[in-house]
Amino acid sequence: MLSRRSMGLLVWSLLALAEGLLASTVFAAEPTSPPFYPDKTRLLVWRDAQGKEHPISSVADWQIRRAHIRANMELVMGTLPDASRAVPLDVRVVETIDKPGYRLRKITFAPEADDRVPAWLLLPNDDAWEPGDKPARKPAILCLHQTTRQGKDEPAGQGGLSNLHYAQELAERGYVTLAVDYPNFGEYTFDPYARGYASATMKGIWNHRRAIDLLQSLDEVDPERLGVIGHSLGGHNSMFVAAFDERIKCIVSCCGFCSFRRYYDGDLAGWSHQGYMPRIREVYHTDPARMPFDFTEIVGLLAPRAFLAVAPVEDGNFAVAGVRECIAAAQPVYKLYEAEERLAADYPPGGHDFPPAARERAYRWFDKHLQAPQ
Q1: Are 282 and 222 in contact (CB under 8 A)?
Q2: Res 3 pLDDT > 90
Q3: Residue 9: CB partners within 8 Å, gap ≥ 6?
Q4: Which of 156, 216, 278, 349 stands the most exposed, by the fewest C-beta atoms within 10 Å?
Q5: Percent of all residues in the chain with a pLDDT value above 70, rounded to a whole number
Q6: CA angle 287, 343, 320 (to 5 degrees)
């Protein structure tokens, strides 16, 4: 007899597999309007087409609300592109730099036609293989940068703030890491709107999903042990890609989110420019009460995967009270899966930063949930 936890995880795994199969089909049209949820802190209810609420008491029930959350995200971000947009990754090595403990490779790859994303691939020394070698497979982590002109260079340790060199530090710890440029940062120039995207956010999700494709294609990477980490811009982009990609098993977001009503007292203008989601301004008038989704729901959507939020108590961008609100809202969902230990938050002192002790906890979080590299 399977335990409730085992049964929940089995149902989730089967549904995740079905989701992966659906991802290979066409999603060209905008999603039909899912129900609107006025109170996005109450996750264990789902609404039917008439707006009537129904209680959620099982993992199977939760899939209804989960599908509504993703569909509501797509109303704001635009539809996730269908698989026909993907082209061969065509990874090209631009340069290779030997560093103490790891090898640093600047690469580019093709997420779609007529587009190349610059990135840094960091390979621990025992994974700095030569042709014909069969390196041991290790966990890999996608590392997403903050709002900085340097883009991918900062997490890769090639400039910027030392507290944000997490791709480098994780490589030194034995992980394969990949740091990529977000559209119009670093060396990457791309107009998502000219290519049919409704938001730069969805273009970022597409590119980051292709980055996961790249990691899974590497001989030295265990394709079942994948994580993502980011600070600020990278913090919420880590959550966004994980919301649309079940292959990601462990997520760390530092200074990346709070509930919309707690973000600058509910003024969502900062989320509505061309670098994010213009529909927040054009359709939802930067009003949290009109928004189809919130971060309370995104955290719940990540269940039962391992999620750690790092939220310094004096962060001026993302109010810590709004982070606590999201964690509290998602706890019943994790409890539904009997996976409460996979949801955690760290509230260190200080402002919008990723201090050493918090980074160490994040790295141990990956060690625990992806199994530390040998």
Answers
A1: no
A2: no
A3: 304, 337, 339
A4: 349
A5: 89
A6: 45
Q: From its phi and psi, is residue 158 left (phi > 0), alpha (psi between -120 and 50) or beta?
A: alpha
Tell me what the mean pLDDT of segment 152-167 comes to: 98
User: Could you tell me which of 185, 212, 183 has the C-alpha nearest to residue 200?
Assistant: 183
* pLDDT above 90 for 112: yes
Token pair 């993703």: residue: 70
State which amino acid sits at residue 153.
D
DSSP state of 149: T
Spatial distance between the Cα atoms of 147 and 334, rounded to a whole number of angstroms: 31
Residue 7 predicted with pLDDT over 80: no
pTM tops 0.85, yes or no: yes
Mean pLDDT of 349-363: 98
**Residue 24 predicted with pLDDT over 80:** no
Looking up tokens 């129904």, which residue turns up?
Answer: 54
Where do the H-state alpha helices sit in the chain? 4-22, 59-77, 166-172, 200-217, 233-243, 279-282, 295-301, 320-336, 356-370
Beta carbons of 143 and 131 less than 8 angstroms apart: no
* Residue 19 C-alpha from the chain's centroid: 17
* Angle, CA 90 vertex, CA 203 and CA 275 arms, to 5°: 15
From the CB of residue 326, how many other CB atoms can be counted at a distance below 10 Å?
A: 26
Please give the structure tokens belonging to residue 219: 């001989």
Mode of pairing for the β-strands spanning 92-99 and 53-55: unpaired
Which residues, other chains included, contact 11 with Cβ-Cβ below 8 Å and sequence gap of 6+? Answer: 59, 60
List the one residue out of 253, 255, 262, 248 whose CA is nearest residue 304.
Answer: 248
* Two structure tokens written together for 37: 């949820």
CA-to-CA dists, residue 214 to 86, 169, 251, 347, angstroms: 12, 21, 18, 33
Which whole-number Å values give the CA distances from 144 to 40, 167, 323, in the listed order?
27, 9, 20
Q: 40-74: buried (b, 16+ CB within 10 Å) or exposed (e) per residue?
A: bbebbebbeeeeeeeebeebebbbbbbbbbbbbbb
Does 12 score more than 70 pLDDT? no
